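Per reviewer request, we include the raw input and output of the structure prediction for the construct analysed in the revised manuscript.
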Amino acid sequence: MNNSLERVLEAAGASKCKWKEPMENHTTFRVGGPADLFVEPESGEALAAMVKICREEQIPFQIVGKGSNLLVGDGGYRGVIFHIGETMAEVHRTGTVLEAQAGITLSALAKFAWENGLTGLEFAAGIPGSLGGAVVMNAGAYDGEMKDVLTEARILDQNGELRWISLEEMELAYRSSRIMREGWVVLGARMNLTRGAGEEILAKMQDLAERRRSKQPLEYPSAGSTFKRPEGYFAGKLIQDAGLAGYSVGGACVSEKHCGFVINRDHATAADIRQVCLDVAAEVYRQTGVTLELEVRCLGDF
C-alpha cells in the first residue's frame, strides 16, 4: 500500500498531503480516526491524476468536502481521503451568474452573492457544508434548494474525464442526484441568480439564521438533520413521538431541542453516534412501521 501511495504523492504536485490525519478535524461531528493519506488537491486536474492512480493501484479512496454530512469511524480510513476545501474555493461573477469551485463553503458563497447584490442563495447561508456536497445531495433549507439556482456543474466522471453537465443531466431530487448514483465528483458549478436589494437580501439571511438558531442545537457538534424525511412524515416528529428525545449512548444523544438531530454532546465516539442512529431507527420502525434512512454518510472502520 505504501509504495502505491507514493505514486499518489508523486502526482500530487503542489497539493497539500498529510499522513495519518485525524478525521475528527474534518467533520462537523468532531469524531473520526486517522486517514492513511489526506490530500487537498490544488485543482481538478491534479485530483483526476491522483484518482486515476488510485484506481490503477486499487487503493481505496473517498472524496469529501466540509464533512458536514459525514460520520467517520473511530478506526479511521484505510486509503486516501481527497479533501476539496480551501485550495479549491474560488468564486467569480459574470452578470447574474456565479461560477464557483466545489470547496467554497455555502456561507461564503451566499455572502459573496449578497455583496454583489444577487438574491437566490439566502437559504444556503446557514447550511454548514461546501458547494460540492450541496450539489451532490441537492442541499436545501427553508424555502430553497440547490436545483433552484444551478445551471451547470463541472464533474470528474467515472471514466476520469473532466466535463461540464447541465442541470437536467444532474437529475436533482430530494437529497439525491444522478451525480450521487454515478459516483461522479463535483469540482465546481455555475448558478444563475437574480438582482436584488442588498438590505433585503441581508435581512432574509439574518431571519433564516435566527430561525435556525432558535430551533436547532447549533451549540453542539452534529451533522445537521441526521435522517432523511420519510415520505408523508417528518423524521424529528416521529422520533419525538416515539419518546426518544434525549436518548443517549455514551456521549451521543438525540437533541431535545430538535429530535431530528443526533449530537455529540460530551466527547462522543463515532460508535456512540452510530449506535444512537441505529437504535432510533429501530424504535421508530417498531412503533410506527416507518423506516428512517440516514442522511449522514458513514465511512471508515467502526
